[in-house]
Design brief:
Length: 435
């Protein structure tokens, strides 16, 4: 059996294991080990498995992953972001679907203090969904809005997905972070515009909320957002001002969130412990998948699979557009079954050589991939954010109703992808301003 055949059979086995719901890290590691055993022998396979986990985890830049996660979970458990929804509500509630639009704005703000879409969806769901249901909003609109708004956390910095992508591809994290800012804001604006148009056409979806709010109360609501603003200014002001590196920014953000929560008086031993435990769980899961993906990269390289794929693309002279469509189709398919981190680390070993050979801008490609991973968070039947929202609302809203509510947001995301492919400057303009 040729080396390429071994790689092909291994990838088929990997897909089969993933469809059988085997954990991504186990499937990646197991298939890679057996493949290496066949290609280079069991001693060499064990040698690779001994060296890669340490070499990867010892990468200094990865220390920022648990720090950014801790920052987000502290903000969530200490309820530092509650003021964001109140601010958006008093300014936007008079719009058609105003509470839903306010939820989008609040989610975008929360995304700036967490790289976790799940934490973003959970935090906003806890605050906004009861408010919308109390105001008579359609259940599918209320739940679908929060599930979709949570995905913005994958794009707006500090994005854990962009952080891991930058480490994997060896790109400057600061450029990737700033590259995600404009697409994240545009996504939020497109979501808001879609909600306004839908609710204007079908007013029954979202009864108008009548608020007797003075201008003093509107401007006073800004005061309640000071915890988030303090963290954002501290972290990103220092990061883009050159005071500290992206790796150090994670530690600064975690420390600032602790200080702000203590000053706010919402930091308790119980919510601090909950934040630490969730950070440890998320970090362990991410690192396990990443180690398996690194072993897969070594296996495919030894088997010559990457060179084969690159030669195949070159031989058929596929255009950039055809490549983008093909890779997008893979992302969309895998998004129906896998979590975003797993999709990214599963596909990067195959897609990166092809993208580099085709001359695609790697920062732009990272933003495109992140957008598809956002879509994966709400794509049936395994939309992670959908089940997060289900956990928040309990029996009040059925899972099918939440999936129904995300349809229009999926359509909006597809329009955004078309715009991103047509105007790559959406992702590359801001990074080009950084020397």
């Amino acid at each position: 059996m040729s080396d390429l055949a071994v790689c092909a059979y291994a990838l088929v086995a990997l897909v089969a294991l993933l469809l059988l719901r085997i954990p991504v890290a186990v499937a990646l590691g197991g298939v890679s080990f057996v493949g290496l055993w066949v290609l280079v022998g069991i001693d060499a396979a064990f040698g690779i498995f001994k060296s890669i986990p340490y070499d990867f985890v010892a990468h200094w830049s990865l220390s920022s992953v648990p720090m950014f996660l801790l920052m987000g979970y502290i903000c969530y458990h200490a309820r530092l972001t509650d003021g964001l929804f109140e601010l958006a509500r008093v300014w936007l509630a008079r719009l058609p679907g105003g509470l839903a639009v306010a939820s989008i704005g609040a989610a975008a703000g929360f995304s700036a203090v967490t790289g976790s879409s799940v934490a973003c969806a959970a935090a906003m769901g806890r605050i906004a969904i009861p408010e919308m249901l109390k105001s008579g909003y359609d259940k599918s609109l209320a739940a679908g809005t929060i599930a979709s708004a949570g995905t913005i956390g994958s794009m707006i910095p500090p994005s854990i997905i962009l952080l891991i992508y930058g480490i994997f591809v060896e790109l400057p994290i600061s450029k990737l972070f700033i590259a995600g800012l404009l697409p994240g804001v545009i996504t939020a604006l497109m979501y808001a515009a879609m909600i306004i148009v839908r609710c204007r056409i079908t007013p029954a979806l979202a009864p108008r909320t009548r608020l007797d709010v003075t201008w003093a109360e509107r401007f006073g609501a800004f005061w309640h957002t000071w915890p988030v603003l303090a963290i954002i200014v501290g972290v990103f002001g220092g990061l883009f001002g050159g005071i500290f590196t992206p790796t150090e920014a994670g530690a600064v953000g975690a420390a600032l969130s602790l200080i702000v929560a203590a000053v706010q008086g919402t930091l308790t031993l119980r919510n601090f412990r909950a934040a630490v435990v969730e950070t440890m769980r998320s970090t362990a899961a991410i690192f396990a998948i990443a180690i398996g993906a690194n072993v897969l990269v070594r296996f495919l390289a030894i088997g010559g699979f990457n060179d084969f794929v690159t030669d195949l693309v070159t031989t058929h002279e596929l255009s950039e557009l055809h490549l983008i469509i093909a890779m997008s189709a893979v992302f969309l398919f895998l998004g129906c079954f896998l979590d975003p981190i797993g999709i990214m680390l599963l596909t990067l070993p195959v897609f990166l050589p092809v993208a580099e050979h085709a001359g695609l801008d790697m920062i732009w490609f990272g933003i495109l991939m992140t957008k598809w991973l956002e879509v994966a968070l709400i794509t049936p039947p395994v939309g992670l954010n959908v089940f997060v929202i289900k956990g928040v609302v309990g029996d009040a809203i059925r899972t099918e109703t939440i999936f129904k509510g995300i349809f229009w947001f999926l359509a909006t995301d597809l329009v955004f992808v078309v715009l991103l492919v047509s105007f790559p400057e959406m992702a590359t303009w801001l990074p080009s301003l950084i020397e």
